[in-house]
Design brief:
Blueprint (H helix, E strand, L loop, with lengths): L1 H13 L3 E5 L9 E3 L4 E5 L8 H13 L5 E3 L8 H21 L7 H8 L6 H12 L2
Parallel strand pairs: 1-3
Antiparallel strand pairs: 2-3, 2-4
Helix pairs in contact: 1-2, 2-3, 3-5, 4-5
């Protein structure tokens, strides 16, 4: 998990996105992206540590997508166009990491989701992104 987090934080740095990693927050305080300061704050104390790679990718994606305001992470927030867009961009970032770091003949969406802590309610988006990327 540390390798994918390093990859994502380097990606943030390359895109002039500041980040703060903190363990001082409650396990239920969501990570966030702030467009005004162009910064993400990641709660390393999150109650589901497996979700951290996806959370980081999701928050970075808000800024890559040009979303305005402050966006808070929620594993169930996929109803707004901004949240859907951040989810898709985050999945794409993780697919790129997967392509660069894993040898595979086929990619299984459920295993991919488990690997990066992607919530199960996003399975259809993961499947669509994988199909589009790999021409399946």
């Amino acid at each position: 998990m540390d390798d994918v987090i390093t990859y994502l934080l380097n990606l943030a740095f390359e895109n002039k996105i500041a980040y703060e990693l903190t363990s001082e927050l409650s396990p239920y305080t969501p990570s966030l992206a702030d467009s005004e300061s162009r910064k993400v704050i990641i709660n390393l104390n999150w109650h589901n540590k497996k979700e951290l790679p996806f959370q980081i990718a999701h928050e970075i994606s808000h800024l890559l997508n040009g979303d305005e305001g402050i966006s808070y992470y929620s594993s169930f927030s996929n109803k707004s166009k901004y949240e859907c867009g951040a989810n898709v961009t985050a999945i794409d970032l993780l697919i790129k990491y997967y392509e660069d770091n894993f040898i595979f003949n086929e990619i299984n969406p459920v295993q991919f989701m488990e690997c990066f802590g992607i919530p199960i309610n996003l399975e259809y988006q993961v499947t669509d992104c994988i199909n589009e990327t790999f021409g399946i």
